[in-house]
UniProtKB/TrEMBL annotation:
Gene3D superfamilies: 1.20.1050.10, Glutaredoxin. It comes from Marinobacter psychrophilus. Keywords: Transferase. The keyword Hydrolase does not apply. CDD domains: GST_N_Ure2p_like (cd03048). Residues 88-222 form the GST C-terminal domain. This is Glutathione S-transferase.
Length: 230
């Protein structure tokens, strides 16, 4: 059984997609980050960094419970556990490279672009331009790479595609105000539609939909989401 600590944001979405693709037995543990549930001592025992996603595999190696945090680490762990959606041995370097590119570049810069355009109390033009342009640059790297390719690594759908899907799903917020944010990236658009059409993607989007996650951006939420600002 996989206990899956979840909030409906891009990084947990990647894990939801893997779990649905693999048909693993899992339990969703809603973790409302706007209420600060990621800062409790119980959750910090699972992820000391205080962020979702995180998992506890109650049937880890040797029958021991195993905690795994950070979306890239979770994808690698689950791919190795199941033997699915991993790369061919000859593509291992490519897989690790693109997972790192997404986890340290495309994802964080996209997240900061969303924050400074839509969440920051002051809309600072320099900061917005900096993060939005860097998000665009990362998109362009992926756009060029996908030219003539169906998937990001090798010839098969893999955890690299799942990882990118989580963030590309947010393109409308990353490029706020653009009604067709993938128009400038036709290869990404084509690839995204391939992943989006998979039945597991529809199921992944429903994960946690029955839980009333807090939506108000009041003082409690701001302190929970951005504690270093206070």
């Amino acid at each position: 059984m996989i206990r899956f600590y979840f909030h409906p944001t891009p990084n947990p979405a990647k894990i939801a997609l893997f779990l649905e693709e693999a048909g693993l037995d899992y339990e969703v543990v809603p973790t409302d980050t706007s209420k600060g549930e990621q800062h409790t001592s119980e959750f910090r025992a699972i992820n000391p960094n205080g962020k979702v996603p995180a998992i506890v595999d109650t049937d880890g190696p040797g029958g021991n419970a195993v905690r795994v945090f950070d979306s890239t680490a979770i994808l690698l762990y689950l791919a190795e556990k199941t033997g699915r959606f991993n790369s061919a041995p000859e593509d291992r370097g490519e897989l690790l490279s693109w997972l790192s590119f997404i986890g340290t570049g495309l994802g964080p810069f996209s997240g900061q672009a969303v924050h400074f355009q839509l969440a920051a109390p002051e809309k600072l033009p320099y900061v917005i331009n900096r993060y939005r342009r860097e998000a665009e640059r990362h998109y362009q790297v992926l756009e060029v790479h996908l030219n003539g390719r169906e998937y990001i690594v090798g010839n098969d759908y893999s955890i690299a595609d799942m990882s990118a899907w989580g963030w590309i799903s947010m393109a409308g917020r990353v490029f706020s105000g653009d009604d067709n944010p993938l128009a400038a990236f036709p290869n990404i658009k084509r690839w995204f539609e391939v992943v989006e059409d998979r039945p597991a993607a529809s199921r992944a989007r429903l994960v946690g939909a029955d839980h009333p996650f807090k939506k108000e951006r009041d003082d409690e939420a701001l302190r929970a989401l951005f504690p270093s600002n206070y």
